[in-house]
Amino acid sequence: MKILIRKWNEMDNDLLYDVMRVRQEVFVVEQDCAFLDLDGLDRECIHVMVLEDRKIAAYARILPYDTDGSRSIGRILTAGSFRGKGYGRILMEEALKAAGKGPIRIGAQVQAMGFYLSLGFKRTDDEEYLEDGIPHVKMILEGKNEEL
Q1: Does residue 143 lie in a domain region?
Q2: Helical ranges in the chain per DSSP H
C-alpha cells in the first residue's frame, strides 16, 4: 500500500488519468450520476490517494480554505474491488492530516454517515438533501482528531 498526496501540477499524465477514471467508474457509472465531474476545481485541490498494486484503491480531494477558515473534502471514494478492506478509513485519516487546521466539511452520503461519525464528524443540521439523486447530509469535523 502506498499513500500519495499531490497537488494538480505534481501529478503526471498517467496518475491524472487514473484519478479521473476511478472517479468516473464510481460516481458516473456505478452510482449512475450524470454530472460534470470535471468542475474546474481540481487544479486548486490537494489530491489524496491510497494505492494498492499500483491501482487507486481510495481517493479524495481537499478543496482550498473557504473564507470562514474551513475546508471541504470531496469526491471521496473507495474503488469497488477494494471496499471492505479498510482503505476508506486510511484515506480519510490521511486526508484529515493533509487538510490542516480549521473545521473540515463534507457532504456525506446518508448510507456512509456512520463511517464519518466514527471519524469524529457531526451532522450540521437535520436536513437531508439530494445530490445527483442520492441522499446526503452536511457534516463537520470541528477540531483535529488527536488520534489521527
Answers
A1: no
A2: 13-23, 87-99, 113-118
Determine the Cα–Cα distance for residues 110 and 77; give it in Å rounded to an integer.
14
pLDDT tens for each residue of 66-122: 988 899 999 999 999 999 999 999 999 999 999 988 899 999 999 999 999 999 999
| DSSP bridge pairs for 50 | 3, 58
Cα–Cα dist 95/116, whole Å: 13
Hey, which residues does 93 pair with through a beta bridge?
Answer: none
Predicted TM-score (pTM) of the model is: 0.91
In a domain, 92, yes or no: yes
Q: Which residues of 81-113 are buried (b: 16+ CB within 10 A; e: fewer)?
A: ebeeeebbebbbbbbbebbeebbbbbebbeebb
